[in-house]
Amino acid sequence: MAKEVIKKDGTKEPFDAGKIRNAIVATVASVALSEERKNEVVEQVVSKVTQTIVEGKDEIPTSEIKENILSELDSIEPSVSAAWRKYEQEKQAP
Q1: Which range of residues forms the domain containing residue 35?
Q2: What is the pLDDT of residue 53?
Q3: DSSP character string of 26-92
Q4: Torsion of the alpha carbons at 59, 61, 62 and 63, rounded to the nearest 10
Q5: Which is it for strands 12-14 and 4-6: parallel, antiparallel or unpaired?
Q6: Are the beta carbons of 25 and 70 closer than 8 angstroms?
Q7: Which of 82, 66, 62, 65 is nearest to 74 (CA)?
Q8: Selection from 43, 11, 9 nearest residue 25 by Cα
Q9: DSSP string, 50-63
Q10: I want to staple 28 with a disulfide (CB 3.0 to 4.6 A). Which of 1, 16, 38, 84 is the partner?
C-alpha cells in the first residue's frame, strides 16, 4: 500500500485510508439513498480504491486517488459521483 500521498501543492503526507472513507461518507450523505445503500457504496469504493489502486505504489498523487474514486462511483452509484463533481464545481466558483 502507498506510504505517501502527493498533494496538489507537491507536499507529501502519510497515506491515510480514513481520509478516503471520510470523503466518500460526506458525499454519500448528500444523496437521497437508503442508509443501507449509502453504507454499501462507501464500503465498495473504499475497498476497491485502497486494494487495487493504492497497492504496489510507494507514492500516489491525490488527483489519481480522486480520479479512481470517481470512476468507481460512476460505475456503482452515478448519483454520488455527480454530487462529488457538483461540490467540486461549487468550491471552485468565485
Answers
A1: 4-92
A2: 66
A3: HHHHTS---HHHHHHHHHHHHHHIIIIISTT-SEEEHHHHHHHHHHHHHHH-HHHHHHHHHHHHHHH
A4: -150
A5: antiparallel
A6: no
A7: 82
A8: 43
A9: IIIISTT-SEEEHH
A10: 38
How high is the pLDDT of residue 91? 85
Q: How many domains does the chain have?
A: 1
> For 36-85, what is each residue's pLDDT tens digit?
999 999 999 999 888 866 677 788 899 999 999 999 999 999 999 999 99
Mean pLDDT of 84-94: 86
Provide the residue type at 5 as one letter.
Answer: V
What CA–CA distance (Å, rounded) separates 25 from 10? 26
Instruction: Give the per-residue pLDDT at 93.
Output: 74
Which cell numbers hold the place of 16? 491515510
C-alpha cell, 11: 507536499
Burial 34-60 (b: 16+ CB within 10 A, else e): eeeebeebbebbbebbbeebbeeeeeb
